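We emphasize that the prediction below concerns an isolated chain of 145 residues; any contacts that depend on oligomerization or on bound cofactors are therefore not represented. The input was used exactly as deposited, without trimming of termini.
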Amino acid sequence: MSFKQNVLIGLAALLCGLVFGVGLVVSGMANPAKVLNFLDVLGHWDASLAFVMGGAVMVTLVGYKLFGSLSKPILLPSFELPTRQDIDKPLLIGAVLFGMGWGIGGYCPGPAWAALSAMAPGTLVFLVAMLVGMACATIAKKRLT
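Result of the prediction step, given as a token string:
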């Protein structure tokens, strides 16, 4: 790939990330209290996260309808879609840990980075813990293989 193509890909990724982050902030999903209230079905339940997820699914469906018939992406030589369909132990463990972290902290990675721009309390602690956890998982995976 040429330098120009790499720059275009980087700018497209930056633009997509910015749109995603702004959407998270505008919808309130960068606020951990909103997420925790969604998970609190027996207390102060807030269903707005379900509507945000539904909106995201609708945008994805439209995207697949518009671009799903392309033989290749606009900026890359080919699509890189996941091919694995098995459910293994690392996937289940990762899903459990992700869910526990989301339920305890009210953050998942995307909203945590978006919340950093709003200087939400506890965000920096969560992000540091997340990055340390990711580094530990990478080291453990390398040692086990």
